[in-house]
Design goal:
332 residues; alpha/beta; 9-stranded mixed beta sheet; 14 helices
Amino acid sequence: MKPSRTTRTARTTRTSRTTRVAVAATAVLTATGLTACGAADTGATASSGGAGDKVTIAVPSWVGAEANAAVAAHILEQEYDVRVEKTQIDESVAFDGLDSGKIDAVLEDWGGAPDKIEKYVDERKSVVSAGDLGVTGKIGWFVPEYLARKHPDITDWKNLDTYAHLFRTAESGDKGQLLEGSPSYTTNDDALVKNLDLDLKTVYAGSEAAQITQIQQNYKAKKPFLTYWWTPNWVNEDVKMVEVKLPEWTEGCDDDPEAVDCGYPETPLQKYLNADFAQDGGEPAEFLKRMRWTEEDQNEVAAMIAGERMSPEDAAEKWVAENEDVWKAWLA
């Protein structure tokens, strides 16, 4: 299901978290020289794509996005003789960079900034869609497979309170813990817990890596846990989890951040380019528009980076060497 641009597919629902993200975003903008004003205001221009030019790719803080950027950068540098700069930046803030021309491409957007898409894509037309990445994302709540086998009814949200005591931790107190990742990730979970009247408390690991570590430790020890999670993710190959069925997502059910009482939609992940770069960026821009791979492809590179501790550059080089039949089509 492809959400419309006005559909808020996954939003931050806590004022305090929004404030923290805004402060962090300001720091990132200052550090990178990005602003929310347009290219016409700053005089910034996108890369032209000629030899020796630079292409700047935004990399949100999860390993799947890192895999996309690493492979794109390797091919751009080897096939088009352009220098690629990968900028670590939150998904929402990256759109400000696309608007200003300081960033040329975002290769994995989960629809978490619908207001900016409306502003920059629909209204200002300073940012353009570059099509699907080829991967469909799904956010949800998950429990380990061994727990679902022991308590089959735990996979229905209506029964979570029965088992909430199993998820208690020092951080969650007398409530069951719903493990979250980075506070910068867009999520409806606080509203869901409140509006579904669940005996749960969201607890943030701090990052994707920290969340994965906790999940892996709990899984190895066969401990019960409930976590906000998403697919695709390379961890799912080794850590078998089962999704908890939340109330069905329908168009508009998450429009009011405070009133969300539905689950998350499936989201075909999108690519976006700075409009000037899309028009004048030559073959590098056309290459990024054509780049499209599968969940399996992305997971393979992500597993090398996060699981095998390879550098993104080495992981990309290995994947490119072994999958010429896939990426050669992006050059056509």
